[in-house]
């Protein structure tokens, strides 16, 4: 392995932002034809390091060598021209432009006098798609594509630069298993062509599958660089968080008694949701598993009244409730924590107080309509304590918090509203491993306090780790409900998640 | 696989009923309905002379609206087009009447003055990162003031420049086809529309217009010098405003320094009625042209029906709100 030459060699990299020492004497090495995973919790400095390599940031000191020659990229364009491509974590496409126009932005084929050669543009784009084995019309507006397809366009864009170094920042965050497989096929092909790939991801199973070496970072420093295949996952996690995580088995409480806290019967909405029925007991965590587009989020939104439904009944504590809008759902004690916290869960530019009180303002308002700031502050600090939200004060702007702490603010909001039924949609998306464990613990505690909880997640290990029972959906139907804990395997879930028709006898939960 | 079949494109039908085409269709249908409605209501409406009057009336607003469309597609807004138009007219007056230079210099000066003003706005927006609304609000007042200062608050007449009034009021088409006396102002409007339409759909500048309005940061990260392109777009927009200044000065055969305020809002209204999104990223010149025509037809028709001018303004306001509402409904449906 040592025989392959160093493609990228970064050493002694320092970077400071106002108030933060983001990178401290960091080194990183990439060989040609290697997939090198870069791991670390959010804020560990991975993205900053990659932004320095790709010309988005300038380093304060240190050396970057490409093919042994020292380089400094003053802007992204210079890095791209030198063969360093990056696929950003947040999709950075122009929705109103077509796929081909997106790929070649900034270097459109021209006739002269600034006139565009649209035919050549589309032809070159479709050649790239063909090389990726991707069936996509280059003339489709990117805004009309699914997130997964948009991701593919991003990858095509990076490939179009004939990059020798390709940085992928969480490329699979929005992809389903089939699409991940396709991506890995592309990565392997690039590897054969001696492209060096830097792969940032939080998903351990992917790293094991695709990467050769792993570099672990923590708090802006190198921890170690190890062989990906030979190093146990638990070691890698321990290096990332600086402590070993105890991955305890799920304790499944006895919830067979009593009226269910939430019962859903015959929920239907077009072809997205077909006759879905289930129950959740007090103190129970019901996991919802399935592939992307299986209809899990749609079910949650329909229950919450965010989307209209064609048919179906919702019962809370045995009583039928008529939910026409989110306001009705909240009045019935149902809270929904969206997968997209920044857009739907939080007023990102406001402080923690404002966000925590957002759903309960009428309880903190005088008759004259004046807000009782003192009381709001008091209760906010109480939840900061209870949920262990790490923040300098209750008046910190939410956008300055980490993903995990933002999620806790959303949880605090719904707890303050006294929601007995909480629906979590991808509660740990974009949250690093250490904070994930905390969210899991919090979920367990909320259930132990007698709340009924639904957790929707695309990560099977997460579903298996938190759920007391697991509902599996496929193509809008509920294809089965499995017991949680050690009795269920990922294979059993995948079997149901890829099933084509309903198996009504497995809906035993309605008993 | 070197050559790939790209014939699996969306069918013509699919493209026709796609979002943007729908809005254009809607605007076009409204225009036709207005024309039919007014024709039935008044026999004087569908006269060649009246249609020409409508076209002539829409020429200045149309040209300004085209200039505004460019900036709005980038996600910006330009509040200065009205007073910039006047400023360019005054500059033409300075060159032609005060300095007594020949006509081509006046035309060039007006267009260059516009381009320079646009470049200033563009620099404020791109380099100093001042929000377009504020930057062009400032430019609007600066240019209004400068027009008054330069002219000494008095109109500048073009009586000594032979042929100046022909820029807008003459008719080259009428010279060759006497039965079709379409004024030059209208011809210029359509030439500007065709050119800008070509620039938007076929050139790099046009591509970056849409790209900037769609996701500026992403364009920047793609290695495009976004500041420079933004300045170029504002400058082009300003040059077109300069043409608008020539048109109005020619029509009045004078530069009226007090004129101009309010024209920017009519231009923005035409852009919006034409289906260009104020949040940037999408829009068409054909739509803007139809928008300007709708406004001109409406005013003309209501006048023929002897509706008071105050009410004409009210109706225009209602039309703008309806147009934006229809656009939002369509967008919500298409998700």
Automatic annotation (TrEMBL), chain B:
Entry's transmembrane regions: 25-45, 51-72, 79-99, 105-126, 133-152, 172-200, 231-252, 258-278, 285-305, 311-328
One Pfam family hit: BPD_transp_2
Cellular localization per UniProt: Cell inner membrane
GO-annotated cellular components: plasma membrane
Keywords: Cell membrane, Membrane, Transmembrane, Transmembrane helix
The keyword Glycoprotein is assigned to this record: no
MF terms (GO), sorted A to Z: transmembrane transporter activity
Membrane topology term: Multi-pass membrane protein
Family stated for the protein in its record: Belongs to the binding-protein-dependent transport system permease family. AraH/RbsC subfamily.
Name under which the protein is recorded: Ribose ABC transporter permease
Protein species of origin: Leucothrix arctica
